Amino acid sequence: MKTFLSIGTGPGIGFETAARFAREGYRVVLSARNADKLDALAKALREANHQVEVRTVDASNPANVIALVNEVESTLGAVDVLHYNAANLRQATVEAQPADSFVSDLAVNIGGALAAVQAVKPKQESRGQGTILITGGGFALYPSPDYLSLSIGKAGTRTIALGLFESAKQKNVHIATVTVATFVSPESKEAKDIAEQFWQLHSQPQASWTAEVMYPA
Fold it and tell me: How far is CA 96 from the centre of its chain?
């Protein structure tokens, strides 16, 4: 059974993307800081007869992210698909945000994504196959002064995906992002649509691989 690892699983995009892959027969691993919220999401998937595992992770801690990947691979087998969905959605201007919270936001918004890619990408490349998916945001293209740390974070993860796309492709690993330029709530059409976009990216023939999809188009 192939394994889908979600880092930063929330009730919107994270859950719906995991559910989309679960419907295709993947074992899904949900991970985030809050175990109680994860258990509720996992219960919904199990009730639909999907195979689900739950792990806690602090996406701001690179060592914790790397340990999660290593533990999943050692106990469940290869991470065939990684989905990095963690982000601190802090509303704060540059004048209002203390430097320490700005740094901690970037540790999740960029640092955790980088750590996850560094942990998964070499393993996938050594096997000659794999997919790395990153939830992007429209603030990467149109930064908001009211969401400055999130804007910088989404610009950073977009750079990771686009910057690594060609070199990863040469080793048969597809790294891609969906740049989400709209508000997304749990159980919404938007969340389901974005999950479908991630599935379509994963399903592309290698000759047609793309690094980025915009939502809405």
Answer: 28
